[in-house]
Write a structure and sequence with these properties.
The chain is of the alpha/beta class and about 220 residues long. The chain has a single domain, classed as Rossmann fold (3-Layer(aba) Sandwich), CATH 3.40.50. About 40% of the residues lie in helices and about 15% in strands. It is built from nine helices and six strands. The strands form two sheets. Strands 1-6-5-2 form a four-stranded parallel sheet, with helices on both faces. A two-stranded antiparallel ribbon has the order 3-4. The longest helix is centred in the first third of the chain and has 16 residues. The two termini are about 30 Å apart.
Length: about 220
């Protein structure tokens, strides 16, 4: 695995931070070695996902990976985007050469949900991935045109209609002619990612590859 200078700098900063505040497992808070996301016991429950160059998932949704994602999103743990973002980076990095000048864009939250949570977890993952890849990150390049019910509460058919026309490119000029890594935490039916992909392509993006920490199977 070859690393860009910016990626090496980010890792060096993490090693320094680890010396000041020892890292903890993203799922259970047990001590872990530097740059590790999960302790040995939690890692044993994590199953790597199969993926393609255009649809990358680091793990299958379940076990410790699901616990860590839930903690990040619902237990006010934005700090967990760092280790989870590193899991995502390790899955994306071998495929990054195929999109050498790609930028990174997160799936957006509706403004009201953003206020409720206090942060967009996908934007934090995107920032971590972009830092590791040495890629530009556009955290508000996409916007939600309307608030939608949580996808997890809906069946497959309802999920598809729920997000139809729910996204638009907010920075079309910056994205036109670019390739994009589209980032989210979990892919279930793929309806949200597909809706975001369509909005990006309509804005003049040349290619969109999705990158998620986990995929439901």
């Amino acid at each position: 695995m070859s690393l860009r200078p910016s990626s090496l700098a980010a890792i060096a900063l993490d090693l320094l931070a680890s010396a000041l505040a020892p890292p903890r497992c993203a799922a259970c808070d047990a001590p872990v070695r530097s740059l590790a996301a999960l302790c040995g016991a939690c890692a044993a429950t994590a199953q790597r996902a199969s993926c393609s160059d255009q649809d990358v998932a680091a793990y299958v949704y379940g076990g410790a990976v699901a616990r860590a994602i839930g903690r990040m999103k619902y237990e006010k743990r934005p700090d967990l985007a760092r280790p989870l973002g590193d899991l995502l980076w390790r899955a994306v990095e071998p495929r990054a050469a195929g999109m050498p000048d790609a930028c990174v864009v997160p799936v957006p939250l509706h403004p009201r949900r953003l206020v409720e949570r206090g942060y967009n977890h996908a934007a934090l993952l995107a920032r971590r991935l972009g830092g590791r890849l040495g890629a530009e990150v556009y955290p508000v390049a996409l916007a939600r045109t309307r608030e939608t019910p949580r996808q997890a509460t809906l069946d497959r058919r309802a999920r598809l209609s729920n997000v139809a026309q729910a996204f638009r490119a907010a920075r079309a000029g910056a994205l036109r002619g670019r390739a994009v890594w589209l980032v989210d935490d979990v892919r279930t039916t793929g309806s949200t990612l597909d809706a975001c992909r369509r909005a990006l392509l309509e804005a003049g993006v040349t290619a969109v590859a999705t990158a998620v920490v986990a995929r439901a199977e």
